[in-house]
Every structure is written in C-alpha cells, then in structure tokens.
Design goal:
Elements (H helix, E strand, L loop, with lengths): L5 H12 L5 H25 L8 H32 L20 H25 L12 H31 L3
Helix pairs in contact: 2-3, 3-4, 4-5
Length: 178
C-alpha cells in the first residue's frame, strides 16, 4: 500500500480542522437562545398582570405562545449540543454533572427527526392558535380564509415531510446501510 503524500496529508488535516468553522455558528445559536429567553420573559410579564381577567380562550392562547417559545428553545439547545458533538468536538463534561441523558446519543438522523417533530409541533400550535382566534374581536384581522387555508397546507406539508423522513430513515436502517 503506498503512503500518502505530505500534500495529501496536510490537505486532509486542513479539511478535518475546518469543522471548527462551525463553532461560531453554535455560539450564534446560543445568542439566539438568549433572544428566545428574552421574548419568553417579555410575554410572561405581559400576561401576568392580566391573569385574573383573562378568558379561558385568551389564557390558552397565552400558554400556547409560551409553549411554542419553549419548544423553539428546546430545539435550539438540541441543535447546539448535538450539532457540536456530531460535527465539531465531543463536549468534555464530567459524567457526574447535570449532563442530559440524550447528549452524545443523538446522531444526525435523530437530530433531523427531532427538528422536523419540533417544526410540526410548533406549526400545529400556531395553527391551533389561529383557529381559536376565529370570530374573536381584536384578533389578527389579516388572517382570513385564504391565510388559514395556506397555514393548513403548510402544516400538512410539514407533517408529510416528517413522515417521509421517518420512512427514509427506516428504510436505510432496514437495509443495514448508513
């Protein structure tokens, strides 16, 4: 077997080191997580003084908004940790710490499925919020029948995309090829 040339080895080492170019992107996602936290706290502060006067529908809409923000934040955390560990470097965290059990176990296929599941859940909650606003005074007047139709279509596309991704992953796993 012939040995690799110095140029080829250096090139491959450079390619391998290029994975660190992803690190600033994960740092950017940490800042996005901070942004979501600020928005979550702002929404919570907005609704807290109204808590005794909120109708059931308004309370549910407020809670759904907080759930969507939490799901989005969970998704960002999963992408940060899983992406960093899969594509950049293993996190050197002492096992006795509060390391979540899923860390280090979510591969790219699992990350993809968590991503699409979160998108479907967020889309479904957004759609539910819009349906609950139908006929309410003060609801977003920009949402008519046409907009609701497209929200449903987009949600169905997300659901079908998730099902197709799951089927593809199942077929790949069944064939034993990765």
């Amino acid at each position: 077997m012939e040995q690799k040339s110095i140029i080829e080895r250096r090139f491959e080492q450079g390619l391998f080191a290029s994975r660190w170019l992803m690190a600033p992107m994960y740092l950017g996602l940490v800042l996005a997580l901070a942004l979501l936290t600020v928005v979550f706290v702002r929404e919570l502060i907005y609704y807290m003084p109204q808590v005794l006067e909120l109708s059931v529908d308004k309370a549910i809409l407020a809670i759904l908004t907080l759930i969507v923000l939490t799901l989005a934040a969970n998704l960002v955390v999963i992408v940060i940790f899983s992406g960093y560990e899969n594509f950049v470097s293993k996190l050197d965290i002492h096992p006795a710490s509060e390391r979540p059990g899923w860390m280090g176990t979510v591969d790219f296929a699992g990350l993809k499925m968590k991503l699409i599941a979160s998108i479907v859940a967020i889309s479904g909650i957004h759609l539910l919020k819009r349906f609950m606003e139908i006929g309410q005074a003060g609801s977003d007047a920009g949402f008519g029948d046409n907009e609701l139709y497209w929200l449903v279509v987009i949600h169905v596309v997300f659901v079908l995309s998730g099902v197709l991704m799951a089927v593809m992953d199942w077929l790949v796993a069944r064939s034993g090829k990765k």
